[in-house]
Design a protein that fits this description.
The protein is an alpha/beta fold. The model has no long low-confidence stretch (mean pLDDT 97). Helix content is 42%, strand content 14%.
Length: 373
């Protein structure tokens, strides 16, 4: 059993994917090729944003967005305490201070109430200047942008949407990567839309920011790559990855719909045994992960071990809150509350989910869970 079955996906679409890769090799069109531009156009149309700038990975995408807003020393950037390391890492990389915020106990996304408390804390108790909210669309479900937008307007903050796990999700008819002033995503292979290496993209409706984003991606270039007008990065999506993503985009919606069916069946089977994911009304998840919660850490570890004996892969996203990572030890704000994050880190577990699972797979995992608990 695969946690995310990329092998079967490739076998089913092998002919088209192989042809896409071969076309790039045949044309020796490896860097900034025509398929990169085509992908940017198709992604911007899919998301509903004016500009899409492809880049090397999702982490670079976040950092380049912060560079575009000139975020740096003395600035506070608010980040969920329950997320992958890069969401906070990029803040430190540009010289700013990450301020971690507790999460909603049901969706695991950033808590608007905790966010406003953290902003007030920074204003009243520190000499930092609040500048940006990084809202993460965790596990495939968009964050609560209605409330986040209200808070951002109240305190005059930018919203940076981190949709590394959220691409393909929606609120109503509006797609993920269209909720932030700038939005980013990742094409890491196991993400909802994944390539065969690293890749990322940045989205915005702002023409001036789009020009800066494009420049920062290629060594701060001006008119051409030898006209360098600012300090930038080397962050380009190679053409082979763009070709793969163009093919995968053709069946992407179908795969997300199937993942929603898998999640629905999981929930039917497991809701009386463990805490199952909560999808808020009006939300549509791309199901990067199906994450359940146990009563305690001991119950989780027992399940992991028994599942391993039965060849059922699992993963823990995430074992340690961001504010407890050693790399952020100098950025601790001990008066802020992280109760929900700490509880979830101790009892969460992600189960296999992908569009190639069938009802037998779901029932097998669910039956083993019942046996254990």
């Amino acid at each position: 059993m695969e946690f995310r079955d990329l092998k079967q996906q490739y076998q089913l679409h092998k002919e088209e994917l192989d042809a896409a890769i071969q076309s790039v090799i045949h044309n020796a069109d490896f860097i900034n090729g025509s398929k990169v531009k085509k992908l940017e156009q198709e992604l911007s149309e899919y998301v509903g944003m004016k500009h899409c700038i492809a880049c090397a990975n999702g982490t670079d995408a976040l950092q380049i967005a912060l560079m575009t807003w000139s975020i740096g020393r003395g600035d506070a950037v608010f980040v969920p305490d329950f997320t992958f390391f890069s969401s906070g890492e990029v803040v430190s990389l540009v010289g700013a201070t990450p301020v971690f915020v507790d999460i909603d106990q049901n969706t695991y996304n950033i808590s608007p109430q905790s966010l406003e408390s953290a902003i007030e804390y920074v204003i009243q108790k520190t000499d930092l200047c609040p500048r940006v909210i990084i809202a993460v669309d965790l596990f495939g479900q968009p964050a609560d942008y209605e409330q986040i937008n209200q808070i951002a307007r109240k305190y005059d903050l930018f919203i940076l949407e981190d949709a590394a796990q959220g691409f393909g999700g929606r609120i109503g008819e509006k797609n993920a990567c269209s909720f932030g002033d700038i939005a980013t995503t990742s094409f890491f292979p196991a993400k909802p839309l994944g390539c065969y290496g690293d890749g990322g993209a940045i989205f915005t409706n702002n023409d001036e920011w789009a020009e800066l984003l494009q420049s920062y991606c290629v060594h701060g270039k001006g008119q051409d790559k030898y006209d360098n007008i600012r300090i930038g990065m080397n962050s380009r999506l190679d053409t082979i990855q763009a070709a793969i993503l163009l093919e995968k985009l053709k069946f992407f919606d179908e795969e997300i719909a199937k993942c929603n069916w898998v999640a629905k069946e999981y929930t039917k089977q497991l809701q009386s045994i463990v805490k199952v994911p909560v999808i808020k009304e009006g939300m549509y998840s791309s199901w990067a992960q199906y994450t359940i919660c146990f009563r305690d850490k001991k119950e989780r570890e027992r399940t992991i071990n028994r599942f391993k004996e039965n060849n059922i892969p699992t993963a823990v996203y995430y074992r340690k809150p961001m504010h407890m990572q050693e790399a952020f030890s100098k950025d601790k704000f001990i008066e802020l509350d992280y109760n929900n994050t700490q509880k979830i880190c101790e009892c969460c577990l992600s189960l296999p989910i992908h569009s190639y699972m069938d009802i037998d797979d779901i029932e097998y995992i669910s039956d083993k869970m019942r046996d254990i608990l």
